[in-house]
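Example: ESIP1 protein.
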Amino acid sequence: VGPYVLITPNETRRNQLQQSNLIAKKELDDLEQWKEEHRPGPIKLVPQRLGGKESEAQARQKQQMMLIQSKYQQKHKREEYVKAKKAAEEAEILKKKAIQREKAERLEVKRRQQEIQRKEMFLEDQYYKTNELLNRLDLGLPKSDSCQIANRGPESTAWMRNHTYKQALRGDENRRLEEMKQEQRRKAELMEFKQKQEEEARTRAHQNEQRRVNNAFLDRLQNKTQPDSIYQPAYSG
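Written out as structure tokens, the predicted fold is:
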């Protein structure tokens, strides 16, 4: 065991603590005595008749009617909620159908445009091939000069027929190309007009649906503010 130091107790501090404990105990005893002296006594009231002007049977009948009305109101609220939910689902389905229909129409327009482009490319290719064939035929014929024009031989007549046929083919090809371009332009205008009409129809349908939902919501608010307007007091169960 190592060295240690012995500290003597402080008598003054101990006496102060004991005195504080005695004072606190005395205060608690005084508080309990004061509560005991100031405890409220029994309440004495004069007997009197309570309740309204209705009898017990009438009160119970009224309570039963209110219970029945609350049940029907809850049922009506559930039905309105189911209707609103179903209407929202139908509106969402119609919206998805409209989107799918619009996508299908765009694909159809794209397919038609591609078909027209293929036809135009085919006609242009045919036109170039025809020109190439006619150019090869022209290279096999002699050049026409003033003497050949003055003295038309069988070769000059063949060349004129070939040249006339070539010009007719070119005119036909140009006319067909112009007709196809006009047809494509008319189809594009028709599709644009149709899309505009469908967009207006969708806008009107959306406005009508929104108006219907708002009217239903206002009706529900009116039914909530006037709960007794649906069920008449003459209801006998």
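Residues 56-139 form the longest helix (84 residues).
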